[in-house]
Predict the structure of GTP cyclohydrolase I.
Amino acid sequence: MTQHSPLTQPDDDGIDREKAQRATRLLLEALGEDPDRPGLTETWERRVPDAFATLTDGQRREAKPTMRTFDAESDDLVVKTGIPFYSLCEHHLLPFHGTAHVAYRPGEAVVGLSKLARYVRWQSRQLTMQERLTNDVASGLVDELDAPMVLVEMNAIHLCEAMRGIETESTTTTRTAIGEPTDVEREQFRDAIARGEGQR
Ligand SMILES: Nc1nc2c(ncn2[C@@H]2O[C@H](COP(=O)(O)OP(=O)(O)OP(=O)(O)O)[C@@H](O)[C@H]2O)c(=O)[nH]1
Ligand SMILES: [Zn+2]
């Protein structure tokens, strides 16, 4: 069907490229398009399968960022706010995107700061719901860091709500805590988020 992949088996990036090509072609036909018109041939042959391979690599452990850690020197809360993320809603296959804030109380280790953002980006790349993604980020970080306490907040706009359906762009906030955050830690997390928002 294409020079990019003669195989029906999943490629290394985990998606069955020929199926994705056939499905995209079929969808274009269902929409009344001619998939063989010049502007669309590479769309089903290459671009859409490649895009979905990237946008779902959160399902593949091999794509997980390396979480380099260092010895912790204290158990003071580490907070990273304003991490952009892009995900796909499993109901409509449309994006939801926004900002994540994460905090953890170190156990034996702290992680390189950039890895928190990389981890959120990787986890976001799957068909999911915002609530589940928030929990996945938190439980994943607990496992990765062996951290006794993690807090995550995500704020997002869902394009399935903005572009169709209710046609309203509103922000959804989801939060989760794993472990037992103290009142002081919760306050530090809230303050850091508010400070970050003040700077934008
Ligand atoms: N809880 C939750 N709901 C979501 C998320 N993403 C999309 N939705 C909602 O999923 C629901 C799907 O509702 P359905 O009634 O099955 O589908 P629909 O007819 O397309 O719904 P409308 O969007 O209201 O037109 C909608 O209310 C969306 O707003 C998410 O991450 N979490
Ligand atoms: Zn949706």
